[in-house]
């Protein structure tokens, strides 16, 4: 009589663990989008300057990007459950600090802490799913994550608008952060009980020197870019920007030595020998820059330039979010398998058409423009963005060797966030420098901000032209290997809703 070996049945508690990590992902996704809509209220309430407004979003994005790869490695080394709970604890604490901030600089510091804790929490999410669920259930689970991403994209601006507009307990904008407290506490209690611990069998070592060099180079670039306008573009700013290139060169040299010494650099430089991957990283960065510019100047244009309430501005963005979600689902399921990279190129062209239409409407209707008149360009832009964001990662990864897919995926998500941070820093140049201070002084702030918005949108158009050009370096069709791996291997991090 032969005995039949069977694998142990999956833990029935895994669905509660899934709900916890999905809630954490939703918190992060919403927190990225919820803040923009409250910017004018923050400016009025605590006297934040325009550069501080940039740092409120830019600081989060920079800390998030700088810590993503290290956060994933910490989970591999010390345990994904442990790092997830630590990150959620820190994220919840930072949310409370943001909510009680009375000083704009304190708010920026709390946002940087929040971004750093998100970098510790978010990379563990799909790793926990991968270790918790059997292979045959992962397709369903990753589909649920796609729904969470879409829900975060749609609900973030609306939730931010409602919480700001309601002015709960006279707290103005603060509930957009404080709402994370009960969610975070519940997640911690449930996570401690229902999430199983897991580690990587062969985890890469940390590269803290690489993190320090890369972060220093970025700060040397972004600080003068963001503060330079208010300080009159001093000489030290130009020197600091030039110095960032030197520090970045030191980072590349150190990474080469680190790879040769122990095989665990922060960035696997050999990946850039794959032409499609190198172009894809540049593409991700450029696309992040375009998104970083657009979403901030769009909020300032509607609420300060046009004088709309937070709720009015938030509801105006609903057609855009719905178009992104609908087009993203269609591109992955129907279009990309048949047409390949042409879908991404069509998305870039469609998004550019939407931007150009928006520029024309801003000029034609002036300060009398309505939400209904904005709906068409927003739907066109959202459709174009949806065609790009969902299939882009798979297209960039399709020619990367399997053994480097994890490192490559983490780098893609990191560069997307870096691009967003750079775009937010560029707002000083592409928007605020274009605001006619004479018109503002004479009470024509609406016209001044409308003209600056059109100027900034031309910059977005230029960056999208670069995105389109870089798409020609992507493979015409995703390889069969990449398609198969997409069904079984999770990325290091969820794609962030714009």
Give the ordered list of helices and strands.
HHHHHHHHHHHHHHHHHHHH
Q: For this structure, what is the CATH homologous superfamily of the largest domain? A: MFS general substrate transporter like domains
Low-confidence stretches: 1-6, 480-498
**Can you give the helix content as a percent range?**
over 70%
CATH architecture of the largest domain: Up-down Bundle
In terms of DSSP E residues, the strand content is under 5%
The overall average pLDDT, rounded, is 87
- How many structurally independent domains? 3
Per CATH, the class of the largest domain reads Mainly Alpha
DSSP E strands, number: 0
CATH fold naming of the largest domain: Growth Hormone, Chain: A
Kindly, what is the distance between the CA atoms of the first and last residues, rounded to a whole number of angstroms? Answer: 60 Å
Q: Main β-sheet: number of strands, strand sense, barrel status? A: none
Instruction: Compute the CA-based radius of gyration.
Output: 22 Å
Net shape: globular
A few lines on this structure:
With about 500 residues, this protein is mainly alpha-helical.
Describe the structure.
The structure is a single chain. The protein is an all-alpha fold and 498 residues long. It folds into three domains: 13-197, MFS general substrate transporter like domains (Growth Hormone, Chain: A); 208-265; 267-498, Growth Hormone, Chain: A (Up-down Bundle), CATH 1.20.1250. 78% of the residues lie in helices and 0% in strands. It is built from 20 helices and no strands. It starts with 13 loop residues before the first helix and ends in a 10-residue tail after the last helix. The relative contact order is 0.13. Pfam families: MFS_1 (PF07690).
């Amino acid at each position: 009589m032969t005995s039949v070996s069977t694998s142990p049945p999956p833990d029935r508690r895994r669905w509660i663990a899934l709900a916890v990590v999905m809630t954490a992902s939703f918190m992060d996704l919403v927190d990225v989008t919820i803040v923009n809509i409250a910017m004018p209220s923050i400016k009025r309430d605590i006297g934040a300057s325009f550069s501080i407004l940039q740092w409120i979003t830019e600081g989060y994005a920079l800390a998030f990007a700088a810590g993503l790869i290290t956060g994933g490695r910490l989970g591999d080394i010390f345990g994904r459950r442990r790092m997830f709970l630590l990150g959620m604890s820190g994220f919840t604490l930072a949310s409370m600090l943001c909510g009680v901030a009375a000083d704009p600089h304190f708010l920026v510091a709390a946002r940087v802490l929040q971004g750093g804790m998100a970098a510790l929490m978010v990379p563990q999410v799909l790793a926990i799913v991968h270790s918790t669920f059997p292979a045959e259930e992962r397709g369903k689970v990753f589909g649920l994550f796609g729904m969470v991403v879409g829900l975060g994209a749609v609900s973030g601006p609306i939730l931010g608008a409602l919480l700001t507009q309601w002015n709960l307990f006279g707290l103005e904008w603060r509930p957009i952060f404080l709402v994370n407290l009960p969610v975070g506490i519940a997640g911690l209690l449930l996570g401690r009980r229902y999430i199983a611990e897991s580690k990587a069998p062969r985890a890469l070592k940390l590269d803290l020197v690489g993190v320090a060099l890369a972060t220093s180079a970025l700060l040397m670039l972004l600080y003068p870019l963001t503060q330079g306008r208010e300080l009159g573009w001093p000489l030290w700013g130009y020197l600091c920007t030039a110095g960032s290139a030197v520090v970045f060169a030191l980072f590349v040299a150190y990474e080469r030595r680190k790879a040769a010494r122990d095989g665990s650099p922060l960035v696997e430089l050999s990946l850039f020998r794959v032409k499609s991957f190198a172009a894809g990283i540049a593409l991700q960065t450029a696309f992040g820059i375009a998104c970083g510019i657009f979403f901030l100047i769009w909020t300032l244009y509607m609420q300060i330039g046009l004088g709309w309430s937070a709720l009015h501005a938030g509801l105006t963005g609903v057609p855009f979010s719905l178009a992104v979600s609908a087009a993203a689902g269609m591109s992955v399921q129907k279009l990309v398998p048949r047409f390949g990279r042409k879908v991404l190129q069509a998305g870039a062209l469609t998004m550019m058409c939407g931007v150009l239409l928006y520029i024309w409407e801003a000029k034609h209707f002036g300060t009398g423009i309505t939400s209904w008149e904005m709906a068409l360009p927003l739907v066109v832009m959202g459709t174009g963005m949806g065609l790009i964001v969902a299939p882009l990662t798979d297209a960039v990864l399709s020619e990367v060797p399997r053994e480097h897919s994890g490192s490559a995926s983490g780098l893609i998500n990191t560069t997307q966030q870096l691009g967003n941070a750079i775009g937010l820093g560029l707002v000083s140049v592409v928007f605020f420098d274009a605001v006619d201070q004479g018109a503002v002084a004479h009470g024509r702030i609406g016209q001044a901000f409308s003209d600056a918005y059109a100027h900034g949108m031309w910059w977005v158009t230029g960056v999208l032209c670069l995105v389109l050009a870089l798409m020609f370096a992507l493979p015409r069709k995703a390889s069969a290997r990449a398609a198969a791996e997409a069904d079984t291997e999770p990325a290091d991090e969820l794609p962030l809703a714009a």
